[in-house]
Automatic annotation (TrEMBL):
Gene3D superfamilies: P-loop containing nucleotide triphosphate hydrolases. This is Protein ImuA. It comes from the Bacteria.
Amino acid sequence: MADPAVLKQLRESLKGLETGGFRRRPALPFGIPAIDSRLADEGLRLDALHEVAAGTSDMADDCAATLFLAGIAARAWGPVLWVVRRRDLFAPGLAQSGLDPKRLIYAEAKDDAELLAVMEEGLRHRGLGAVIGEAKRADMTATRRLQLAAEGGRTIALLMKRAAREGSDPIAMPSAAVTRWRVTCAPSTPLPVAGVGRPRWKLALARQKGGEGFETIVEACDATGRCALPPVMADRKAVAGGTAPRRAA
């Protein structure tokens, strides 16, 4: 019989060849224990669909949700496909959240149905680090197709849900997404002098499979795509004996 250690090493070598030398992580952590510890997968599952919506119809919240998506994609591996309905993405803004424009592939869809189809095709390609789309209507069937397309790969699927009509809740409709988030602007970091400090967001996990929802305040993504706990919150946890570094590792 072959040595079990040799067989194990062979399996690991074959696995590396099958994935192009990459070892697929099961999840993409935020690097903030206060958030990762409350997620069922200790991060965002890479082979899954995640939905994000602005907390209100205000343009500032819409931008915050967009930058939140950019930060997640920035921390994923490889090229990123971003499918849009309108040409309103601002590349320098995405870069400030860590997403290098050189990694981006843009696709423009004529309607939500075409957008979801392009996303599905991108997920099945297996050569992308993230696939992002922005849609008003994506029912259970459509989101289930995206979830199935993502499963078994290492391409995270990110769907930004926009309100179908004024005052409606973008993530009220049933969905197959593993996590569903709302992002709302919060008062920026105070400065000792006149000016505007680092932006802050209220992240609300409205739903997750295998866990409970929660809300927290974070400082917006930096140039590496990482959020951070505000200093007061981080200091409070440190005093209480917890481990909550201000910036993600």
